[in-house]
Every structure is written in C-alpha cells, then in structure tokens.
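subagent[fold] <- orchestrator: predict structure for attached chain, return tokens only, no commentary.
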Amino acid sequence: MISQNPVVEINNVHFSYDGSNVLEDVNLQVPDKDFLSIVGPNGGGKTTLIKLILGLLKPQKGRVRVFGVSPAKARARLGYMPQHASLDPLFPVTAMDVVLMGRLGSGGNRGFYNAADREKTGEALEMVELYEVRNRSFAELSGGQRQRVLIARALVSDPELLILDEPTSNVDAALEVELFELLVRLNEHMTIAVVIHDLGFVSRYVKSVACVNRRVVIHPTSEITGEMINQLYGHDVRMVRHDTFGQANG
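subagent[fold] -> orchestrator:
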C-alpha cells in the first residue's frame, strides 16, 4: 500500500540477533489512518518490526522513518501497548493511577502529575468507556477492563500512531470483539497497527494486513486468502472473509 505521506516508511531494512537474521529486506509503508494488522508465525519478526518502528531497536541496514523523521524524534507522537505489560495486577493502584503512568515524561512534568495530566487521564478513560471505574483498584477489574485501561495508558499522550502488541491475548472471544470495536472507533482519529494471532477477526475490522515472516508483504484485507495464510504459517489457519462473514476458510 503506497501513500504520498506515509505515517511509517521502512526501506530495505535488515535486522538480526547475534548473527541470526530476523528481518530481511523489509519495505513497508503505512498510510495515515490505516488500521494495519501484523500477522505471522512465532519468531517471524512481528515484535521486532514494531520495536524498529518505535525506535526501541535500530536496523543493521536500511532506514526507518515515522512521520518523516527518525523513530526517536517521533516518539512523542506514538502510543504503545506492549504484549506483556510490566504491571503486577496485585499492586495497589487504581485504574486512574495506571493510566497516569502514560503521562510520565510528557509535558516536562519530571515525575509529578499536574491538573493537565489528570484531565488527559480522564479523557483517555472516557475514550475506552471506563471513566466510571477510574477509582477502582486495577486488581479488581475484569480481564477486559484491564486491557482497556492499558490501552488508555497508551492513549493518554494523544498519539497519532497507536501500536498494540497482541492486545487480545488472554481474553475470550466476546472481549476480543469488544476491544476491536473500540479500536475501530479510535481509528477514526489515529493510525493503528496491531499484532494479532487470531485471524478470525482480521478481515472484519482492519484495512490492511502485513504478513511477516523474515520478509514483509502487505495486502489490503480483501486480498488475503486462506492459501496465503497457509503458506505464511505452514499450516491451516482459520480466517473469516468479508464476503463469507461468519464462515471459516482455509
């Protein structure tokens, strides 16, 4: 997918760990307001790809640009929800406390929260429809509510690009639908890239799919077939198509 002013532009990127190639000759453009799903087998390079976009890793070869600049310079415009949030659910914090963590380092607060931080936190909780539970203990929330709080933490810095690494892990199918419907609403205001394993929901919500297995190939969702996915994963994977909603393919 080509855009004149892409949010993300990756050119000829190579990355390896200890001499073992993880990504090879990667070229990718993500246009503004895209809703991109990143799929592929375990070890195929999905998390490495998003860490390159976030600037947490640097390529050994090639170039990564986000909003036309290096990922480090664009960091204030990015929101990120990692696959494994480093937050003990038993730690005595409220939902608002967790979301406030996303304001650390923004606005020059130097570790202290001000009225603007708290206002933004309330807005982020409203976006994920959890403002009413803002003062409840994080540990008391349901699994789906916790995921929404962590999404709010990524939203509280007003990102223009939101990146989520497997946000629906450890939630049931009903909550997965709920979370993706939330992401569709957020996509009206920002570009979203999400790593996900369950392809049953991909074509129902996202606009394009990046297939990652050392190399990256991007397709509009409507072009994805069961055969493509079988080749990517090396085995049959359930997938739902727009034109056969509710039916399994592949």
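orchestrator: received. Logging for downstream: Residues 8-244 form a domain with the Rossmann fold fold (CATH 3.40.50.300). Residues 237-250 have pLDDT under 50 and may be disordered.
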